[in-house]
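Dear colleagues,

I hope this message finds you well. In preparation for our joint manuscript, I am sending the Aspartyl/glutamyl-tRNA(Asn/Gln) amidotransferase subunit B (Halodesulfurarchaeum formicicum) sequence together with its predicted structure, so that both groups work from identical material. I would be grateful if you could confirm receipt.
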Amino acid sequence: MTQASARDALAPVIGLEVHVQLETATKIFCGCSTDPDPEPNTNTCPVCLGLPGALPVLNEAAVEAAVKLGKAIEADIPERTRFHRKNYFYPDLPKGFQITQYDAPICAGGQLEISHEGERREIGIERAHLEEDPGSLQHAGGHIDTADYTLVDYNRAGIPLMEIVTEPDFRSPGEVRAFLSKLEEVLEYLGIYDGQRDGSLRVDANISLVEASEIDSDGGIAASVLESANRTEVKNISSHKGAETALAYEVTRQRNAIERGREVTQETRHWDESRGITVSMREKEAEKEYRYFREADIPPLEVKDWKEQIPIPELPEARRERFQAEYGLGEEAAAKLTSTKQVADFFEDIADRFDPDLAATWVADDLLGELNYRDMAITDVADRFEEFTRLVELVAVEEITEKNAREVVLRRMLDDGEGPDEIVEAAGLGKTTGDEVAQAVKAAIEENPDAVEDYHAGEGGAINFLVGQVMQQTGGSADPGEVNQLLQEQLE
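The corresponding structure tokens are as follows:
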């Protein structure tokens, strides 16, 4: 077998551990704020710093968030769950152990369907459990492997964390990106996650290369094959784009090693996003001993009856399908309009008040397009939804043209912060109708005899040219449809 065919015969097998910060007002075991922007080491107390005698108290909101996620991924939520101490030493772990869940996680099993390159696949979830976040390390004067020194900020210590462990079901870095994007979408719809918070989602990825022939047509692979393959764990991935890039690099690195006849070392590696490489941190032990034992200060948690009282909202996939059925939207438009819960809520509010087709065009194409051009999100203008609704109303009642609404009013609203009525009045954008339009049509015909001749000769572009001349004379305030109709009547 040639070196090229040897490389092609290898396929990646990837599993994830996704760490999601839950959106709660206070930490998981104390009353400290989860405010993301305080001075370092100010949102701390004896509990989250692990001082002697301090006792943890479980945050009810964190448990509710975990139950919501469990319902969304169709996990088994047991009647009773409990916490353990995971013992290891690291500078960002002030107690010398982490309160987490071991043999009784709050969510067991589950799945999440992804779409990648036109194919749909279900990714299995092994478990999802609650734990406390460690502090954060800041490497000064270099990267993790070259820093002069490292600072520790314990503001993050104790923030509620949900660790989601997947089955090794991913067969490409692209599938990983699709999964993380879908997961973030679900978390945002559930209202338990803020993607704008720094470090809100972190990923550890385990990756092995195996013979492609060992993977069946459904993507399945025997456990014995996985056990015999050396794998690397890639840490410090903080986005779905970063996950795809990091894993693509790691696939190439491992393939190059195998091509050169070297064995892939079973190790933990650090993803250095600024350099675009993974860096070796340590060899991976066969099975690290964390000496788990039950957290005696937190009694077992009964969730049997409570979980039935915790509702979850309509999830993005279901809302996408409803939008297509209820509003007659195409698949692409429905996907845009359900990309976030805020976008979907805003569209539905507009669609209930005006024509759904108009609402879909304005939200999916015009508003989201202009926001994307400015590297903004819908959340950046959430406090101005009434103003944008008013803009759609001005178009719906034909007070201004769609062209002026899009190219003048919307852009000035985003760039200058002005209101729609203020812009319309200042720019004189009220729609031109009646005699003024008729006069502009007559003038365009008289001043452009060549275009008139081309029209009668059957050249379709001539009418568009004449429409443009009328729009220019009326400052873009005439209705293009009305202009087109008047021109054809006059020319005939």
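For the figure legend, we might mention the following. The chain has 16 helices and 16 strands. Residues 3-308 form one domain.

With kind regards,
E.M.
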